[in-house]
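Hi R.,

Here's the chain you asked about this morning:
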Amino acid sequence: QVQLVESGGGLVQPGGSLTLSCAASGFTFINYLMRWYRQAPEKEREVVGTIYSGDSTYVADSLKGRFTISRDNAKSTVYLQMNSLKPEDTAVYYCNALVDPYNYWGQGTQVTVTS
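And here is the predicted structure, written out as tokens:
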């Protein structure tokens, strides 16, 4: 019943921007933290950031100043605003929610940063 659907990925030039969206359903979205992860080829999946139910956020140190997480509880959607993109940001980006007792993942959306 729980579903997470990412969208907004694509091809962008270095220095460009993208906004990813994750539409959630099947649980009471407002009560749960949401996370963004990413996984580059031959790399481990890593946390990009977290947004908590009270709207406070955490962003990985290496991404602070470029990436911003937000949420719209009325739309049950979490966003990842990515600015000043670099080639090393190329990865599949995943939305994640912990809804006891399971950890749910979206299908991922590809972000490719290249000139």
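One quick note: The chain has a mean pLDDT of 97.

Cheers,
M.
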